[in-house]
Amino acid sequence: MRRHRKSLLGALAVCLLAALIAAPAVAQVNPGELASLERQRDELTIGVGEVDTELEQLSLEIAALAAQIVNDGVVVELIADNIEWTVFTRQEPANTRVEIAIVGFTQGDPRSNALLDEVRTLEGDDEPSRRRELYESVIDDTEDRLEIIDAQLQELAGELDLARNDLSTRNESLIAAEEAHREAGVRRSELADQLSDTLQRIEALRALESRAVLTGQTTFDDPTRPALAVKIDNVPAARPQAGINQADIVFVEEVEGGLSRLAAVFHSEGAEAVGPVRSMRTGDFDLLAQFNGPLFANSGGNRGSRAQLRDSSLVDVSVNVFSSSYYRAGGRRAPHNLITNAFNLWSVGRDLEGAATPLPLFQFRTSSQALPTGARSINGASINYGSTRVEYSWNGSGWDRSQDGQPTVDTDGVRVAPATVVVQFTNYIPSSADARSPEAVTIADGTAWVLTAGQLVPAVWNREELADQTKYRIPGSGNEVAILPGKIWIELPRPGKASSN
Question: Residue 280 pLDDT more than 50?
């Protein structure tokens, strides 16, 4: 028994450990849930309103039917009373006809004694003739009255049938309307319950929401976790890439041969697949240090780069350190198929020494706030890295990105269209780890274009210390350029290697 208990506890411990390892540090709330709930709230509110209108109409119909039923009942009673009265009035001529029949039976019908009456008339006695005329007149009048009354009774009987049918039909309509009202009441109660639950969930989510420090957007993810920077391949064989639309900020750096490589920074949102992950460059350590101890995912690097990484403020979560958090995806050849999971990297790296929450890189504005006076409307911009070209085109809500004449999409086929694009004109020097590799100089100053809301805002950029964040300011004023909340792509071309249209 004791051994069995120990084995059971051991099995439970293994299950718990496996669950902890398997469960990534996922978002507290699905970022799209609030928007979905708000749409559901609006639909339910409309539904409740429609049912309320239906209930009101049914209530009016029920009241009208009830009033008509009362009237129909009165009509039936009146017709019945009229029939009763008509039957009563028929008794007098009917009795008269009976009496005449009795007289005719007992005394003889004066019309049957016509010859005798004629003789008496010739003798000067006109009484029989008058008696016969009176008799005939009474008979005719009685028959006429009975015929009229019988016709009235027949007509009244028809009216009574119609009135009773109307009363029965209205009663049936009333029962149907009352049943429809009951059913509508049940539907209204169900919709009201759903609406109440939805409003409670929205309220609960609103209590959890915060603003992402890097994008200014609403987020329900963990605001205290460190930023995660992932080096992503950007040559044709590596495209389309995974996870690039979930990154808060994506830097585009020039690398060997006039090509480019991405440094995607995740914080407010993660992705279960990110990549293909590629090697680091020495310029990454200065560029990414502004994110205050970010986790740094990469596929490795040369000896000089690895040494500089150890001396940097970046927290190494590369494939060399956490190989189990990376895998080779099918359908592509190495080295363009190394994939990682942002949530898993947060899970294994967020508590490592040096990891910290990032600081804001940009100031944000609302759509009602005006842009600086130097802003000018543009259709797009073109950037030349040497062997690869990038184009951005304003689509009304974001900047559609293309590279080498092809739309930039992720592995889900979703077009990359960030809310803001920064063209940060940057000088490059030979890398100290490999003279053939260009190294972006990002602790410096220079000019920049901030593309926001269909406008190009000329700016100057400045970063004095390793721990400082790059600031983009309006020339001559010193005020930072405020952008709309949303995803951001920062291109780092050499000076003079971009144009707008």
Answer: yes
Amino acid found at 372: P
Nearest Cα residue to 337 out of 299, 289, 370: 299
Of 128-137, 154-163, 416-425, 433-442, the poorest mean pLDDT is in 128-137
Mean pLDDT of the region 295-318 = 96
How far apart, in whole angstroms, are the C-alpha atoms of residue 182 and residue 34? 33
Indicate the average pLDDT of the chain. Answer: 88
Of the pLDDT bands very low, low, confident and very high (cuts 50, 70, 90), residue 131 is low
For residue 172, give both structure tokens.
């049936």
What's domain 33-208's architecture? Orthogonal Bundle (1.10)
Are 71 and 215 in contact by the 8 Å Cβ rule? The answer is no
Which token pair is 136?
A: 């005939």
d(CA 251, CA 430): 19
Kindly calculate the radius of gyration of the chain based on its CA atoms and give it in whole angstroms: 48
Of 207, 210, 214, the C-alpha closest to 222 is 210
Q: State pTM to two decimals.
A: 0.64
Residue 108, token pair as written in the block: 């003889």
251 neighbors 420 (Cβ within 8 angstroms): no
Q: Where are the alpha helices (DSSP H) in 30-113?
A: 33-107
Among 3.40.50.720, 3.40.50.300, 3.20.20.60, 3.50.90.10, what is the CATH number of 218-500?
3.50.90.10
String of b and e for 264-277 (b: at least 16 CB within 10 Å)? bbbbbbbbebbbbb
Kindly list the domain boundaries of the chain, sorted by start residue: 33-208, 218-500
Q: What is the pLDDT of residues 348-393, one digit of tens each?
A: 999 999 999 999 999 999 988 989 889 999 999 999 999 999 999 9
Measured in whole angstroms, the distance separating CA 293 from the mean position of its chain's CA atoms is 37
Alpha helices in 108-248 (DSSP H): 114-122, 127-208
Q: Tokens representing 224?
A: 């205290």
CA 198 – CA 32 distance, rounded (Å): 14
